[in-house]
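Changelog-linked ticket: MTE example.
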Amino acid sequence: MVSFIRRRPWEIRESAATPEALFFDRRQVLAGLGGAVAAGGLIGAGAIGSSRAAFAAGGPIDDLFPPKRNEAFKLDRALTPEAANGSYNNFYEFGFDKGIADRAAKLKPFPWSVTIDGLCNKPQKLDAVELIRKMPIEERLYRHRCVEAWSMTIPWTGFPLAELVKLADPKPEAKYLRMETFLDPKIAVMQAQTWYPWPYVEGLTLAEATNDLAFIAIGAYGKPLPNQHGAPLRLSVPWKYGFKSIKSIVKFSFVKERPKSYWEGLQASEYGFWANVNPAVPHPRWSQATERVLGTPDTVPTQIYNGYGEQVAGLYKDLAGERLFM
Ligand SMILES: Nc1nc2c(c(=O)[nH]1)N[C@H]1C(S)=C(S)[C@@H](COP(=O)(O)O)O[C@H]1N2
Ligand SMILES: [Mo]
């Protein structure tokens, strides 16, 4: 059934193809935490996730589907098959392998409290459904390029992050938007491993957050978001490496200082704040020139800003001194 998403024999082993996971292992070994390796290995064992029937009808946002597609966002390639996308995920809270979909079933996306705070005139705490109902919902076809050199395409349903920023009404001192994932080791098994800098955190400049491409996904493939993609609210910033697109967000904070992301906390020399896609700037441990297209046998050239340069290159024109592509 899922054989088409299994790695083909000519492809590299899963462990070799997932440098982020390798990095975790190495760190654990370096830290002398042998038990953690065992735990990670145990839940990772043999995992090719099954694609769950994610759409249990009767949910509180069902009426928003199917959404109206915004035709301004076009793809240069086919959509990734839903089953492939739903069973090959990075969601480290649930394990360091790709087959986390079943484990993510523990997550309960409704009800879901969202906090908007920091340097804004309208700080508020509201339920995700209440927030979603204030937002203009549409479908967009987006690319996604993981830093591990694989890519996907996906029809997200959601709303522009700029609309959430507008709702919060940031003060002039606010320079960045910091976003945080839920923290609950009873739900997410890996969060019990307290030497990782949980919760997952990401950040954008306000200029990035209000760029039209920055999108909060609440659904995919015309249905509410399956847990493994980061229900109920997940960022998509498709011109940046995938780790910037933080899942299952509980908090949006307007701040003055550049937030330190989860990945920066683990390894700042390899995973920086900007993380814009650039085929000419290799990761310290592998090339970024090409990408494996999930659900196909293809490897294709990677594009600068993942092909979205027209929309976003202007954001960076005065930032030449910054490490924009890592
Ligand atoms: N909270 C959280 N968000 C996350 C991650 C994660 O481990 N935890 N992984 C990131 C990475 S590395 C990628 S490539 C994408 C994967 O999204 P997908 O599984 O929906 O394809 O989610 C990003 N968002
Ligand atoms: Mo990623």
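Closing comment: Example verified and attached. Residues 90, 146-148, 242-243 surround molybdenum atom (ligand 2) (CB under 6 Å). Residues 1-54 have pLDDT under 50 and may be disordered.
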